[in-house]
Write the C-alpha cells for this entry.
Amino acid sequence: MITGYNTDVPHSDLVFHVQTEDKGKSSAWIESLVYVGGQVVARKRSSYKSYLDEGQGRQAIAEMMDRQHRLMIAEVRGGKFDAKVSELAEGAAKEEVTAGGAANATSSSLEPHATDDLRTLDEVILAEQQAAMVEQEVAAEESVPTLDQVILEYLNSEAEQEHLVLMMDSDGDLVPGEEVGMRFQTKSSVSAAAVPGTLVAVKMISTVSSPATLAAGETDEQGELGLTIRIPDLQQGTGALIITASSKLGTAEIKQLL
C-alpha cells in the first residue's frame, strides 16, 4: 500500500480537502475523496488491476495516484462540485426549517457524488486530458505569484549563491569570568571550500557595559582559527558574545548568549 496525498484547495470562499489513497492490492483501487466542512461531496475510484496483471509495480501505481489526485484538484478548481456543495447547503437549510421529511432529504444529499465508481486506465487518462484545459485556465488565473512563492524563489536563489559559512566550537562552556579556547572554521556555502584570510572578531555586549572586542584573528589556509579568550565577569545584568567573520564572500555572524 502506498502512502496517500492530502491537499487543501481554496475555492469559492470555501476550503475543499482532497484525499487520495491506495486501498491495497486486495482491492486494487485508487480512491479519492473530496470533503467540505467534514462532509464528502465527491468520490472517485480507479482500478489498477491491469497494472498488477501486467506485472507493473509500485512506481506505476504511484504515478496513477498522483495523476488522479491532481485531476481531482483541477476539478475542484474548475467548479465541478459547486452544485453538490450548494445542494448540501440547501439540504442543511431545509433541515433547520423542517425536522421531519427534510431530515430524509438531507441524509440522501449527503451521499457522496461518486464519479466513475470503478474506472479503467484508459478512462483515467481520458478524464485527465479533459481536466487539462481546466488546469490551464486555473494556471492563467494564478499567474500572479503568491507571497509564499516569492519567498520560496528567493530562498532557492540564495541557496544557489556562494556565501560565507562560519562555524564555532569551544573547549567548554562559555562562563563569565573564565577563560575558554574557541575554534572557528570558515567555508563557502556551495563548494564547501575553505576560506582563508577571513577576519574573525569576538565581541561582548551586555546590558551593563559598552561593547568590547575580546579577541580577533584571521583564518589560515585551511580556513581555521583558534583563539583563547577570557570572558569578563558580569556582576549583574546579562550579556552575549557576537562573533563576526568578514571575507571576500561576504560576512557571517554567530550570537551566543552567556
